[in-house]
């Protein structure tokens, strides 16, 4: 006998991926977002006037600036103005005689042009270089003054053991992106599942299905089918995202980061998180009569997915706070919060194991309760189940 | 082993002391009955009597509070579901699916594989061949009912449970389904039929179970039940119908009446007294219709 859950899963999967809505969300949407982004990253620099090669003029009344390739000295403002009008320079600035007392300079540029405004950072660097040289500061020291620190933070616990370490931007960005991706993928898959169950209720096929397959098998099949749809969608998004990242300057941010174990944990948390949300949302959908009603009922669960997003800034600032820890153990938030904390703090093996154990136990309990509600809910047509009905369903064997 | 096989031959379904409550309301109260192999069994009762709950319990969709159900002499198992066909009262189908794909999906859930030619056979038999590649929603209500009928029988079940099978069918398709059911019965299929259409039950069922408010009120061979309820006289007449002695109840329709007789009523005396008052066109002594028995039993229960 073929596994009936797999038959249901295959049916639901194929039915959904053939839909125009899915094809749009999975294929066209990322392309619509990514292509302009890629285009911008690839071609924007060429569209912007080459500021790097453009020259900036200056009139130095304080007498400490030395001209160089990019910076051209003029005798007076009139001469500089002429050069600016004829586009020999993109802008010029005047250093006053009392510069060392006031630090005041005046920048002149052409009217209205965004690209031709003077790059102040380049200007600052040029001024600092000349000040340091004027003050007889050596090249090496001058470099140090320009970049006085490269930070690596290490904190120790009471025993003196290293506890926290913060890595670079990429090391933080990737797991943070993973946490967001996890929220997105779980919510997307659960959304498909909810839609599928509501459609089933609207077509009143519950009774016919349950005469061929048990409610548990049906629920399992649906969760598996729509979970695969969600995974496929996220897979496509990740693929498009990775192609984009590694073909753009952003790729450098992620260079050399050890991500395999984080990916491994992300997959574990995706499966467990999706299962927990799927079972809960399936249960909410089975007692509703329309998609709108199902969305309202499942709001109680989707809210849990929003909490980590709202708390993101706080968690990043205080990844070891009691709030962060509580949410690491709370089953509906643990997948997301753990993903957020992972790159910021060393979460002990026991902490991760405990959060996964709580998640698995919760799935067990909720599956058992949801199974009963789902079975009875699927048989209820045209009427939303009241709380009293649901309590009655729970008493069913 | 021999015993089990013999039992399977005689009794297909056995229900003992079945009780089911929702909240504190008893929907099925200590019901017991059995259905024999290749018989058509009628499951009757007014709306809300507990028929659908009974079917759901038989199909293991709902669990009973007490009692036992044996199918082919064995307790329910998932494997047994493949030997049962079910046509629910609700017309539940996937509207956006093609007719062929819809049958195929439900058949696969019954463990069927490679059944394309079988689907063609059934579509042709019920005159739905031209709709094979159309979406289910393009079918009329009656056609959708026929499609559901195919879904319930395509896997050639040993027991076929039908809930209001003739609902929404025109007379031609009703006859087509009826003929098909009798054909299936002759091939050895056990058919359990729940319906309000008493005339169809009278024509097709060998035995019946009538429940009301969750309790068994009638059970057994249809002819025996009818004869136990005495006799009735069908008269076609002109004039004003009197009510002679020996008549328990008269359903008078103007120029046609069904007269329910008291236990020891003398039909000759009744004929004589009627002939004196009205002009009789037809006078027929018969067992009461199931419809009459149904109304009587349900009203007595009130």
**Biggest β-sheet: strands ordered side by side in the sheet of chain B:** 5-6-7-3-8-9
Rounded mean pLDDT of chain A is 79
SSE string of chain A = HHEEHEHEHHEEHHHHHHHHH
Number of domains as seen in the coordinates of chain A = 2
Count interface residues per chain for the largest interface: A-B, 26 and 30 residues
**Mean pLDDT across residues of chain B:** 88
Report the strand count of chain A: 6
Protein structure class of chain B: alpha/beta
Helix percent of chain A reads 55-70%
Summarize the main sheet of chain B.
6 strands, mixed
Q: Kindly name the structural category of chain A.
A: alpha/beta
Strand order of the largest sheet of chain A: 2-1-3-4
List keywords for this structure.
heterodimer; A: 397 residues; alpha/beta; D-Maltodextrin-Binding Protein, domain 2; two-stranded antiparallel sheet; 15 helices; elongated; B: 302 residues; six-stranded mixed sheet; 34% helix
Structural account:
The complex is a heterodimer of chains A (397) and B (302). Chain A is 65% helix and 6% strand. Chain A is α/β, with parallel strands linked by helices and 397 residues long. Chain A has a four-stranded mixed sheet, covered by helices on one side. In chain A, strands 5-6 form a two-stranded antiparallel sheet. In chain A, helix 7 (169-203) packs antiparallel against helix 9, helix 10 packs antiparallel against helix 11 (291-317) and helix 11 (291-317) packs parallel to helix 13. The mean pLDDT of chain A is 79. With 302 residues, chain B is an alpha/beta fold. Chain B contains ten helices and 13 strands. The longest helix of chain B is centred in the middle third of the chain and has 16 residues, at 171-186. Chain A binds chain B through residues 1-2, 4, 7-8, 11, 203-215, 217, 375, 379, 381, 392, 396-397, and chain B through 22-23, 56, 59-63, 78-79, 81-82, 84, 86, 88, 90-95, 105-106, 108-111, 113, 148, 151.
